Amino acid sequence: MEEDQATSFGNIVLKSFCPKILIISTPNYEYNVILQKSNLPDQEDDPDEKACRFRNHDHKFEWTREQFSSWAFQLANSHDYTVEFSGVGGSGDCEPGFASQIAVFRRKPAQNSNGLDSHNQELVHCPYNTIWEWSAVIPPDHETLSSLYRHRDGIVDLSDEARTGT
C-alpha cells in the first residue's frame, strides 16, 4: 500500500463504516535501527537509499512515531473519534519506542437533542448491514459429555474403559 492509500483508507473506514473501535498497527520506522543494527538515515535522503532501510522489502513507506501520531490525531478529529497509542515489542518509555506502533480509535458517543447517545439508536449516517454473524458453541469436555450420557440413559459410559473394552 502506498502512503496516500493508507491516508485514504483511514478516512474511508471511519466515514463509511463508522466502527465503534478501529485498531491500526504499523512498523515504527525509528525502531529499524535496532532491527537492522545500522544508523537511522534521514527520511529526506535518496528514496532508493531509504527503501533498503524499511522493515521489509515490500514496504512502500513506514512512519516515525511523530508521523503516525500526527496522522492518527488528524483522522480522529476529522471523524469524531478518540485515539490512544500503544505498541508491541520494545518499550514506549524509552527510545526508539515500540517496534510496531498501534493506534486504537474509539467512536465518541454522539449526543442527540435529548442528551442520549444516538449510537444506541439505528445509525442513519453510517448505513451498513450485517451480512453474516457467527457465534461459537464450545463443546463440553470429555468428562462432562460422559456424565451427560450416563445420566441421560442410565447405561451409557464413555469412560476410557468402556470405549476401549478394557
UniProtKB/TrEMBL annotation:
Protein name: Uncharacterized protein
Gene source species: Melastoma candidum
Highest classification ranks of the organism: Eukaryota, Viridiplantae, Streptophyta, Embryophyta, Tracheophyta
